[in-house]
Amino acid sequence: MGRTTVQDVAREAGVSVSTVSRALTGGTVSASTREAVQAIAARLGYQPNRAARGLITGRTGNLGLIVPDLRNPFFAEVAKGVTARARAVDYGVFIADTDEDPVAEREALASLGRNTDGVLLCSPRSPDADLLKAADPATTVLLHRRVPGLSSVVADISDGIRQAVRHLIALGHRRIAYVGGPEDSWAARQRLAVLSGVPEVLLLDAVAPTFEGGLGAGDPVLATPATAVLAYNDLVALGLLHRLAARGVAVPERISVVGFDDVSLAAMSHPPLTSVAVPKHRSGSVGLDLLLGRTGAPGDQMILPTSLVVRASSDVPPS
Amino acid sequence: MGRTTVQDVAREAGVSVSTVSRALTGGTVSASTREAVQAIAARLGYQPNRAARGLITGRTGNLGLIVPDLRNPFFAEVAKGVTARARAVDYGVFIADTDEDPVAEREALASLGRNTDGVLLCSPRSPDADLLKAADPATTVLLHRRVPGLSSVVADISDGIRQAVRHLIALGHRRIAYVGGPEDSWAARQRLAVLSGVPEVLLLDAVAPTFEGGLGAGDPVLATPATAVLAYNDLVALGLLHRLAARGVAVPERISVVGFDDVSLAAMSHPPLTSVAVPKHRSGSVGLDLLLGRTGAPGDQMILPTSLVVRASSDVPPS
DNA sequence: GTGAAAGCGCTAACAA
DNA sequence: TTGTTAGCGCTTTCAC
């Protein structure tokens, strides 16, 4: 790797190491010196050691992203948004997958907090207090989670839920089952808060926010008089779709199904899933800009708009 | 947050910084001292500065993972395998998503190459020569791609394809369509090499290795007398399933569909997809071990077994 | 077994 | 404009 150091370049160029440093990082040097040094550096294939540089500047040029599960397409898209923006601003991205483990999350936060310029944290379920205790407000931005005192980028979940409900009601549905997510999940509580006040909505038991969770919710949904189901997220909706198909229940003829998040799977399901689109990719890039101070101020709470994407899984109720 | 240094720990523990270092990195220290220092370090929330450590040890404790697209569940799973193993051996992981762009891949390789101890590279489509030129054989491990002269971890694609074909033939199929992937893809060439020699197989035009690619392949497949389709991968198979459903073609009654990779979507499709399971998670962890020299030798070519997972999308041909 | 001191490669004062 | 001199936080000789 980069064996050549500033010393080598300095010696070869007949100048001091500080002059080399200045010539290469845009300090005050004569044009001729700068050119000469740059030429030598290029010839020697000099690559600055970023660790050494970071040690003194205090900035590493890296940042961290912590997610509970990369296999979850939602977080994969967020990660993609982060890495894309990071590449544009020449930052490196450490990614830690905590595997939904709070301990791993805490460790990642500690390690990354120390070795990066900031961290983007996706923590759907850790208690506010834990987050407040483990995260430095100055160098942490929460993604898809809001905690007072910390910067965050969230989607307008309430509005998304309302759009979904309005859509179903406009279609004629008057009994809408809601299959919720984990009670300790921030996003699940957000959804519930909106839905609790809607008379047409029938709240069912919460399930795991997974395909399996959706599978298990199939029969309970059928046990209700609902003509439509709103699922916690697309994965749950997919599980629902699967179980309903297995029971010979036609979607959307007998019952409509609506998901949330609009992950890419939503368009691939059978039938294609009506879902509330959340700007996942964008949340990553916006979060990164917030972290780097390119936009907003520390402590800021960004809210990104959501929008309903209507596909074939929702239609008028059976007459 | 990460303000505490060895100095702080040393002062608090009443020992020298060198003793702290030894106690924490497994040097020669008395058991009592070690325990005391570790306790203090934990209490102070001490996190070693990896940059400083790397400066002296010459090792960064970080490695890189380059993937073409994190949203592709295949690579998301590989990434998960890498991060999981990295966490176990206390390594940080830089992830670069190149967005299928060869230039971005080159840049990522250069940047990561000099800021990490090694790079795991997923490059399905770059020419061998480009890879050989850009990658340092001593610090690079290819994942799901084999290039002479570079270490790699690949799945036994040939065997997987053979299992799939044998399965279909055993069911009674005698006309099997194959919807292939990009001709410049290493994995696609591997599959083709096996399939070319099989009389029962009908080679169709290659498509993009995506859901959309599969959609487009639906009608061409129906234009053949095939009673079964083997798709380049699960995403293509899903697209196929989707288009076939839209055409009112029953799967597997009228035609069987088999995918490849066995990504999680395969189990969620309708009908659930028979697919060749590739050890994605494992490839990541094995690749990491190979990179860190915990297993095998540089230049090694690891081959991981594949296995057919039979689900509802494949059955006997129509009689 | 432990401490003092010497750097790793680099940048940022401070002089000159 | 340039060189000299401190370190950044850590590990690692070398004494003791």
Q: Kindly report how far apart the N and C termini of chain A lie.
A: 71 Å
Beta-strand content bin of chain A = 15-25%
Give the oligomeric state. homodimer
User: Which residues of chain A sit in consecutive blocks of at least 5 with pLDDT less than 50?
Assistant: none
Major sheet description of chain A: 6 strands, parallel
Structure keywords:
homodimer; 319 residues; alpha/beta; 13 helices; 45% helix; elongated; DNA-binding
Structure, explained:
Chains A, B: Residues 4-57 form the HTH lacI-type domain. Chains A, B: GO terms for molecular function: DNA binding. Chains A, B: Keywords: DNA-binding, Transcription, Transcription regulation. Chains A, B: Pfam families: LacI, Peripla_BP_3. Chains A, B: This is LacI family DNA-binding transcriptional regulator. 2 copies of one chain form a homodimer. The first copy, chain A, starts with 5 loop residues before the first helix and ends in a 10-residue tail after the last strand. Chain A has 319 residues and is α/β, with parallel strands linked by helices. The longest helix of chain A is centred in the N-terminal third of the chain and has 16 residues, at 73-88. Chain A is elongated and about 90 Å long. Chain A is built from 13 helices and 12 strands. Chain A has a 6-stranded parallel beta sheet with strand order 2-1-3-4-5-11, with helices on both faces. A 6-stranded mixed beta sheet of chain A has the order 7-6-8-9-10-12, with helices on both faces. Chain A has helices at residues 6-13, 17-25, 31-44, 50-57, 73-88, 102-115, 128-134, 157-171, 186-195, 211-222, 234-246, 265-268, 280-291; strands at 62-67, 92-97, 119-121, 140-143, 151-155, 176-179, 201-203, 228-231, 256-261, 274-277, 301-304, 307-309. In chain A, helix 1 (6-13) packs across helix 2 (17-25). In chain A, helix 5 links the parallel strand 1 and strand 2 (92-97). The interface between A and B is large, with 50 and 52 residues. Chain B binds a DNA duplex (16 and 16 nucleotides) through residues 5-7, 15-19, 21-22, 25, 27-30, 33, 48-58.
